[in-house]
Specification:
There is one protein chain. The relative contact order is 0.08. The longest helix has 16 residues. The protein contains 17 helices and 65 strands. The strands form 15 sheets. Strands 30, 31, 32, 33, 34, 36, 37, 39, 40, 44 and 45 form an eleven-stranded antiparallel β-sheet that branches. The chain has a seven-stranded parallel β-sheet with strand order 46-47-48-52-53-54-55. Strands 29, 35, 38, 41, 42 and 43 form a six-stranded antiparallel β-sheet that branches. Helices cover about 10% and strands about 35% of the residues.
């Protein structure tokens, strides 16, 4: 077990044992019983004399509420059988009296006092068993006059991780009251505590604090260069404390050496958010609760060894300040990597305020932005700004095949994006626009500002374009006089030729319907925009205001949904209609009627993503063969694997989204794989966090900044060690790993970026496997920079279960994650995606990634191999026992597919087409040979003919052969004549070689 959880577990711990005469020990039984039936905690009781009734008083000092409502189970330690005759009395959080029949006479017995059963597997709920005593009347009559005294000797936890010792062993009411009486006149108490004993309880003082009481001094030791941390436990006595904060003095030695106060911080008070903006946090502490304030000191490497002293000053709005004298001994040894290789010492808390990789440097394959007048060029696209500040035109230069960038532009807009402010008389408010003011011009970002003024309204437009095709608009509308509006509309007039497909607003990926009619419904639907486009050009847009926060996803949307934009939503009067109007396909984003008083301000913000982001890299896709299983690298090499994904719940990456425990084992595995020429990626995302995280107590001290607010529940460990203010997440039964749902964007994302950088540099990971995510594109850019530092591969693949269901607010996974697509290497969509009963348009837009410059793989029921090959997709090796694309890999290698040009059925210049629109054809073209992939979406078996442009293929039809090579579990060997009918079964297809 990790060192953090082991600290102090085997020491003797003396507590007031009431009727006992010997100290009670807290020990770890090292998985000595099955907790899923008996619970995680028991008491070892010794019976030393003969008798029919044993009485034991157990001073367990429990943190759980209402212990009298939980069942007591006694087990005979000699026979391992349940003792039937048991009677519990006076059960409280402090102690309990248990009578039982010592069935083996003088011996040892075990009292289990928190037995439970689980309901559910991956999202379990814990139900503690109710008292169920049923002793015989004859035995029960003896307990008041024939009981012999037994002795509780040990409080045992099933393993070290489940132990309550020492920070979750409560002080008694008497001890607490005595301590308070001793400090009469004080508004609050302060308990300085070292980093190895994180404060875990908020409703009780730990018994550990009772002997020494509240103190105004703290002393500890650290190393030169170490990220040092300590705690100040605040306990209000008289009233709630308001705005508690900590400031610091310099630390000095007698010889004049100084550790500057500028290197000190209380993470509960100050920090830096995920985009580098300084933040302050207000800490209020309710009366008679414990609040941990975590303080950090970044000790410089050059610090001289010695004894440093100074102060931490606690200031409160409604109580006197308290000064804590700090004495810190700095040893002469320099900490390795600032101590972050030992995270159980809380050395990584400074990562919460990390700003690494924030600078918006251009990330490959993207190129620096180039501005020419009001035109801005970026990879494969061009963006032109109108005099209003809104887009005048957006163009794509990607080829239809999506394998390159051409010279001929494809217009996305039929006319500029524009607003209509319509007065009640039906007339539009006319604006006068100031000149475009370019406020930033860097290789990564170009930003501008335009003020559009009218007598009634000032519309200030601030826009920015980034190198990947992300456009952000802040549109601030201020009423210069009272004005009544019939409607506010933003028109996005799409070029009809580009508006072939749509996704979002209640539509799965499909050919654009004649009309889309949509209204805001944030309580139930995670929808605020759409993607409209073709394979080689399109636009995703979303509507927001200044109050936007990221909702929860992956089963939890309904617990924290979107916030209705005040402007666009307009108390649910707003909506979006998409329809053909004149010469354009118009996306009309409207708000409905509203009135504005002079000085009222509204924000009609919106974001654009210009798709695709880059061309397909088919060579890389077909050359990299993924294995999704923890397996010996030599075996993986023999299977033709080039990339191994290490899932959570495996021996070297056991705990979800916290790959910092089995790091030595992980590095050894990765080094072994690298010797075999194989890259290794690990599961690590932000969405939920393992309860094994060393920093968990510190993160909970930050309120709901890191963890989403909820009602608790979940696996037993969460019930027993946390206040019920969280949402329980994924549970991995094999390692009993219980995750807790993360909240909104927070400083944990800074930690995540630092962690990725550390894993890349120190462990050698080649990338990351993302299993749904809860972060935005700003973090994704930082992650990509961290993973690609110093020439590392930085591979990222994204898996998602379909989010298009009630629990996820009916959001398309591609819509949800499109802002991350510019930095993804491969998609894996995923559970609940239907490969059998969805259209080829759904495959293309929702799953394949091709309209965005990506390629992917299939998962649910191992996918559909015939349809998948039309998009270059297979299943992933060993994700399931039957997932095995190796027969297809063999054919790829025999043909040489990685060196072929992929031309999809969506491309007009595909030289091979089917005469049946329900059987599309994609080809992989080489010189003098071509691999033809065809698959059926027809309901019944059909016979098709191939329409072949032999000249375009460079093949002489008189000497050509068409052969279906034998591919295991895919197709039998067969030859076809040039004009022969090809039979195609429903949901199946062929791979044909034409030479």
């Amino acid at each position: 077990m990790q060192k953090f959880w082991m600290a102090g577990l085997f020491s003797l711990f003396s507590i007031c044992a009431f009727a006992q005469t010997q100290p009670l020990r807290f020990t770890n039984a090292q998985d000595g019983w099955n907790p899923d039936s008996l619970g995680n905690h028991r008491v070892l009781v010794l019976v030393k004399t003969k008798g029919d009734v044993a009485k034991v008083i157990i001073p367990w000092r429990r943190r759980d509420e209402n212990p009298q409502e939980k069942n007591i189970v006694v087990v005979d330690g000699q026979t391992n059988r349940l003792v039937k005759n048991v009677k519990a009395e006076n059960i409280s959080r402090e102690k309990g009296i248990i009578y039982f029949q010592p069935t083996s006479g003088p011996s040892k017995y075990y009292v289990y006092y928190m037995s439970y059963h689980l309901k559910g597997t991956f999202y379990p709920q814990t139900f503690y068993k109710k008292p169920s005593e049923n002793p015989s009347e004859k035995w029960l009559s003896k307990i008041n006059h024939a009981a012999i005294n037994a002795i509780a000797t040990e409080l045992q936890s099933v393993d070290a991780f489940n132990s309550f010792y020492p920070m979750e062993v409560i002080a008694t009411e008497k001890e607490t009251n005595a301590l308070i009486a001793k400090n009469t006149g004080k508004d609050y108490l302060v308990f300085p505590e070292d980093r190895m004993h994180p404060i875990r309880m908020t409703k009780d003082l730990p018994e550990r604090w009772i002997p020494n009481g509240a103190k105004n001094t703290f002393s500890d030791e650290t190393l030169r260069g170490e990220n040092f941390a300590y705690q100040l436990g605040i306990y209000p006595l008289i009233e709630d404390l308001k705005n508690v904060r900590v400031s610091f003095s310099d630390l000095r030695t007698k010889n004049g050496a100084v550790i500057s106060k500028n290197l000190m911080e209380c993470i509960n008070n100050k920090g830096v958010n995920w985009v580098g903006v300084p933040e302050t946090f207000r800490v209020n502490v309710p009366q008679r609760t414990v609040q941990a304030l975590w303080c950090t000191i970044d000790i410089p490497n050059e610090t001289k060894a010695g004894q440093y002293t100074g102060t931490a000053i606690i200031t409160v709005d409604n109580a006197p300040a308290t000064t804590i004298k700090i004495s810190l001994k700095v040893a002469n040894k320099v900490a390795i990597n600032h101590g972050v290789n030992e995270p159980w010492k809380q050395t990584r808390l400074t990562w919460l305020n990390s700003r690494i990789y924030e600078k918006n440097t251009v990330i490959k394959p993207y190129i620096p932005l180039e501005k020419n007048g009001d035109e801005i060029s970026l990879l494969g696209r061009k963006f032109t700004i109108a005099k209003t500040g809104f887009p005048a035109q957006i163009q794509s230069f990607f080829t239809q095949a999506m394998t390159g960038i051409g010279d001929k532009p494809k217009n996305i807009l039929e006319e500029p994006i524009h607003f209509h402010f319509i007065k009640t008389d039906g007339k539009n408010i006319a604006f006068t626009s100031s000149p475009i003011n370019y406020t930033e011009q860097t290789p990564g970002t170009i930003a501008w500002q335009v003020d559009n003024i009218s007598p009634e309204i000032d519309m200030n437009v601030v826009g920015s374009l980034e190198f990947d095709g992300f456009v952000n608009y802040t549109v601030r509308v201020v009423a210069l006089q009272n004005v009544d509006l019939k409607d506010v509309e933003m028109h996005i007039p799409f070029e009809p030729a580009i508006a072939k497909y749509t996704m979002g607003l209640g539509n799965v990926g499909q050919q654009r319907p004649d009309s889309v009619i949509w209204k805001w419904d944030v309580a139930n639907k995670n929808q605020d925009g759409a993607w409209v486009g073709d394979v080689n050009g399109g636009l995703q847009y979303s509507l927001r205001d200044q109050h936007y926060t990221r909702p929860l996803n992956t089963n939890f949307y309904l617990q924290k949904p979107l916030v209705l934009p005040t402007s666009w939503g307009n108390e649910h009067k707003g909506g979006i209609d998409i329809f053909l109007k004149g010469s354009s396909v118009l996306a009309n984003n409207y708000t409905g009627p509203r009135s504005m008083k002079k000085g009222d301000t509204l924000f009609y913000n919106f974001r654009l993503l210009i798709t695709p982001f880059h061309a397909l890299d088919t060579k890389d896709h077909f050359a990299n063969r993924y294995l999704h299983k923890y397996i010996n690298p030599d075996t993986a090499k023999s299977w033709g694997v080039s990339v191994i994904n290490i899932h959570q719940g495996t021996p070297i990456n056991a705990y979800i989204n916290y790959p910092f425990i089995q790091t030595k084992e992980m590095k050894a595995y990765i080094d072994s794989a690298h010797r075999d020429g194989i890259k290794v990626k690990i599961y690590n995302t932000v969405r939920e966090l393992s309860n094994r995280a060393y920093e968990l107590p510190a993160l909970f001290s930050l309120g709901n900044e890191i963890y989403s607010k909820g009602k608790g529940g979940g696996y037993s460990w969460l019930h027993e060690h946390l206040d019920p203010t969280y949402i329980s997440g994924w549970f991995t039964p094999e390692v009993k790993d219980a995750a807790i749902i993360n909240g909104d964007m927070s400083r944990w994302h800074n930690y995540y970026v630092e962690g990725m950088g550390w894993l890349t540099k120190n462990i050698g990971i080649d990338g990351v496997y993302l299993d749904d995510v809860a972060f935005d594109r700003d973090i994704m850019k930082r992650i990509k920079r961290a993973l690609t530092q110093d020439g590392h591969a930085g591979l990222i693949d994204l898996h998602s279960a379909s989010q298009y269901d009630k629990a996820d607010g009916y959001i398309n996974s591609a819509m949800l994650y499109m802002e991350l697509f510019p930095y993804i290497n491969r998609l894996w969509f995923g559970e609940k995606f239907d490969y059998e009963n969805t259209s080829k348009d759904y495959y293309l837009t929702e799953m394949s990634g091709i309209p965005f410059g990506l390629m992917g793989e299939m998962l649910e029921h191992d996918g559909n191999p015939w349809r998948g090959m039309v998009y270059g997709m297979t299943d992933r090796l060993k994700w399931s026992e039957t997932a095995d694309p190796r027969p297809l890999w063999k054919e790829w290698d025999a043909f040489g597919i990685k060196d072929a040009e992929m031309i999809g059925y969506w491309s007009d210049n595909n030289p091979i087409k089917s005469d049946n629109e329900n059987v599309p054809v994609t080809i992989y073209k080489k010189d003098k040979s071509v691999l033809v992939s065809l698959a059926s979406w027809a309901k019944n078996e059909v016979n098709i003919h191939l329409k072949i442009d032999w000249k375009a293929l460079g093949i002489n039809p008189s000497t050509a052969t068409i052969v279906a090579p034998a591919i295991d579990k895919f197709q039998p060997a067969r030859s076809f004549k040039i004009d022969e009918t090809i039979p195609v079964e429903p949901n199946k297809g062929w791979l044909l070689e034409i030479k």
